[in-house]
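Project outcomes to date are best conveyed with an example. Our students and postdoctoral researchers have been running inverse folding experiments weekly, and each run begins with a structure described purely in tokens. The record below, which covers 85 residues, was selected by the lab manager from last quarter's runs and is presented without edits.
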């Protein structure tokens, strides 16, 4: 014979199982979306180029000029360079 408390426990277990199944299904959907979103990061590169071909190398004068918002070629002789500061 079933008591009222065992019937309530069965309902609770059933509810917890449904919530667990819903969370599992949602997590599966999120994992699939993440794989689609970041697929380009997971693929193997077809042909790797050397780094110096991808990013041009600048000399030190150009780098310091850009750091101050100035083009090194446009800087006049009277402007301070702040490179030794």
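After processing, the design step wrote out the following sequence:
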């Amino acid at each position: 014979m079933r008591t009222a408390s065992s019937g309530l426990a069965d309902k609770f277990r059933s509810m917890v199982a449904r919530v667990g199944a819903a969370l599992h299904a949602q997590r599966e959907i999120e994992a699939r979306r993440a794989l689609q979103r970041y697929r380009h990061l997971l693929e193997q590169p077809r042909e790797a180029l050397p780094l110096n071909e991808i990013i041009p190398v600048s000399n030190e004068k150009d780098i310091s000029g850009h750091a101050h918002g100035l083009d090194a070629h446009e800087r006049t002789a009277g402007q301070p360079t702040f490179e030794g500061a």
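The mean pLDDT is 75. The chain has one domain: 4-67. The training component of this project remains on track.
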